[in-house]
Amino acid sequence: MTRSEKETASILHRLRNSAAACRRPLAFMEVCGTHTMSAFRCGLASVLPENVRLISGPGCPVCVTAQGDIDRMIELARNPEVILCTYGDMMRVPGRRGSLEAARRDGARVQIVYSSLDAVARARAEPARQVVFAAVGFETTAPATAVALLAARRLNLANFTVLASHKRIIPAMRALLSGAPRRGLGLDGFLCPGHVSVIIGQQAYEPLVREFQVACVIGGFEPVQILRALADLVDLARDHRAALINQYPEAVTPEGNRAARKLLDTVFQAGPARWRGLGEIPQSGMIIRASFARFDARRVFQLSEQAEREPASCLCGKVIGGLALPTDCKLFGRGCTPISPIGPCMVSSEGTCAAWFKYGPRDAGGSPGRQPLQEANA
Amino acid sequence: MTPLISRVNNAAAAPLPAHFEHIALAHGGGGQLTDALIAQAMLPRLNNPILAERLDAGLLGRNGESLALTIDSYVVQPLFFPGGDIGRLAVSGTVNDLAVCGAEPLGLALSIILAEGLERKVLERVLDSIAATAREAGVQVITGDTKVVGRGHADGMYLTTAGIGCVPGSRNLHPRQVVPGDVLIINGSIGEHGLAVMLERDMPEVKSVLCSDAAPLNGMIGDVLRQAPGIKFMRDPTRGGLAGAAADLAAQCGRHVVLQESDIPIRPEARHAADMLGLDPLDVANEGKVLLVVRPEEAEIALAALRSHTQGRDACVIGHVDAAADGICELHTTIGGRRIVQKPYGEQLPRIC
Asked: Which ipTM score applies to this complex?
């Protein structure tokens, strides 16, 4: 047995003992696409005790992007003057009139970028065209968008704008705890996102813990790090304690990354945002400040704020809210597959439905066999 | 098997969207979507018993020796990348498709499509690489064709290589030979080709020591086949990666294939690059790897034969075939968990070969 195997076995041992002592079903939620992927890839559900369930919450930036925001991206991409730059995962998300991939096939200029500055470079290289960067993501990708906006201002670019759909995670967690979605959710705690916490810091969760008496544990992304954070959450549930624990201290400090937060504050202000399936959540969006209005695609192109209409019978909203499993959805695996996705949770590789489809189910009852449990116990 | 497993598998095996009006990039990804394209558009029109086998090469002839014929096109961008170039890829890929069918390559045909305006020195550099790789593989380009298309109609250069080889009569490599208990061997660490190309193309500012593994494997494979005649089947896990090759193997032999995650060699730099690009290393293309299915009694012999070659130094056993007749590939993970391995559906990032 290697050192890491021993460590895994000992954490699992602790987790199982605490879970057994709880004598009731426990539900925790992660709100980070990387946690979703990592949990699926390592077959986490197949090693968890029967009464412990990890729900994937609204942590995949593509999945929480509202239908209307996707429609606006497609509308812009179809404008012959425009080159729309975006992250790869957005390409296949269906809007009401096709996807960006379909728009590109029909001749629209859509470019996948890995960095916001690639979009700035594109604008400099093609001064005769309008380059729009469709920016999505949480506090992790938003600083890069801020850097692009500052660069555009410094370079005085007349042909670069940002269509920002950035989101803040804490208001969404607050909405899940206080709003209608919590009914029936029975949440025992949050596995808090590693990357986002690097930016917002450990302290950002303190008000949630205090106000809602909910346990929050910040965890890294390696399977063993996720297990460690879950074991802490189960311990807290056993002891009926609402506390904040940082199990990722090598990356997450109490106050987070001040420089990045200052960047965000320079460029964005908090405002309402629409989330797929969760509706409008106050303070959960990052709105481009008026001082950057000339780089704000919403203002420059006077985009309509269309009414939201999500695909009929798609349960993505409930899946994101932790109220339904992908397999509860009539479309899952039938009309909706990674090849022809209907809902955003099937499009993004970080989406719960796509991960479920690709790696198999991970709720305790549906994992492929229980033998590893005994092996790890031995 | 729990009911949910078969439910998910059924979902995965559900009919793919039957109708598409246009070709998408992902149709060329070597995943489920490519399979759908072949099944829906090509097989109904071109089907015959040899094509229906869907092996890496078509095998002609029944008695005694048979001839193997294979063909592949190469559209990789950029043309040059760490560890290789389009020319090395074009020779290696075709030679390897012959070799995994048990064929000894006899000769190659090379077709070149050039874009107007391509620099002569770029062409010559690629041709030098083709010549060097062919020498390494002990095979010659015996015929060819050249076309030029107008500026903007092709991206620099496309290559097509066809290869012909001869399969000794005693060899019969086929998924139907695979039985429970057989072990899976890989000749080295995975994911490096796809990741090296993607980094070079999409993140040129990232400095990495990752190199493509593109190499002709016919020498090594020939050696292993001579020393371990109990080899049942081989595949080169190119597009679709090890996940695609292993999932296909499970489906084709109808058995439960188990991969042990902790035994699958992945270099740390490949793992980091895959994390950065948001990819599963199991899904990423290799161009110098072969997945072998061997009788357990001959596993050690096959490993020793592989390890005597540079391309097989890190060869190891990564899994086995189980008795369950469900056609599913499963990964036993490092934390003792289990999950299904599926063939990737399309391709996250285009044009790596």
From this structure: 0.79
